[in-house]
Design a protein that fits this description.
By secondary structure, the protein is of the alpha+beta class. Helices cover 34% and strands 24% of the residues. The chain is built from three helices and five strands. It has helices at residues 2-18, 29-35, 53-60; strands at 39-43, 46-51, 65-68, 80-82, 88-91. The strands form two sheets. Strands 1-2-4 form a three-stranded antiparallel β-sheet, covered by helices on one side. A hairpin with a 2-residue loop joins strand 1 (39-43) and strand 2 (46-51). It starts with a helix and ends with a strand.
């Protein structure tokens, strides 16, 4: 866990000091939320969510798995955009 903590602190420092955008991939939502304000979720190689962590919580609540199925119309989701119109299954925690 020491190496993980050091890596997170390093990435946060580089982001702040160099004013650069970093792309980080992880399944650990707690770590991602500590480092980022925006989250992009990919399922099956396609972008299925682009928004805030709070927006994702509004959609998922306390679920550990979120399944999004649309009928071809884009639902209104507070604080985020749904970017594809097919079934997507997202593991949140």
């Amino acid at each position: 866990m020491v190496a993980k903590r050091q890596m997170i602190e390093f990435l946060k420092r580089i982001n702040k000091e160099e004013a650069v955008t970093l792309l980080v991939t992880s399944h650990d939502m707690d770590d991602l939320e500590e480092m980022a304000r925006r989250i992009l979720m990919i399922s099956g190689g396609r972008l299925v969510y682009d928004g805030s962590f709070d927006g994702l919580r509004e959609i998922a609540g306390n679920l550990t798995r979120l399944t999004v199925t649309t009928d071809g119309t884009r639902p209104e989701l507070a604080g985020c955009r749904l970017l594809m119109e097919r079934t997507a299954c997202l593991n949140l925690r």
